[in-house]
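Hey L., structure's done. Input below.
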Amino acid sequence: MPEPTETAAGAHETAPEAEVVPEVPETTPDPADGGAGPDAEALQARVRELEEERDRLAAERAERDRADAVTAVVSRYEHITAEIVQALPEDLPTDRLEAVAGAVNKAMHAALNPPGLGRGGLTPSGERRATWGGLFRSAL
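Output:
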C-alpha cells in the first residue's frame, strides 16, 4: 500500500523545484525559420480551404443568378422558350441575353403576323394609281 502523500499546498511549500512549468506547444513557430512552422502551415491550409469554399459559393450564386435571368427572359417574351435561351452560350452576359431575346421575339412576331389587309399594304378604300390603260380610256 502506498504511503499517504502531502497535500498540494504542502508540496509547493516544501519543494519549490517541483513547480509546474507550462510546456511550449510543439506547434509554436520558430522565429528562426520565418514563421513557417506547423501552425503557419495549418493556417495556410485553412486559408486555402476557405478560399475554395468562397469560390464554390460564388459559382453556385452565379449559376442561380443565370437561372433566374433565364426564367425572367422566358416569362417576359412571348416567343422565347427555355430551350432557345439554353441554346445560347452560357457565358453570354445578362444584358446581351435580354437583347437577343428581344430581337428573336420581334422577328418571330413579324414572321407569324405578316403584313396583310389594313397593315401597311394596299387598302380597298385607297386611291388607285394611274395605269396606262386608265390613261388611254380617259383620253378617248
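Residues 8-12 have pLDDT under 50 and may be disordered. The radius of gyration is 42 Å.

-- N.
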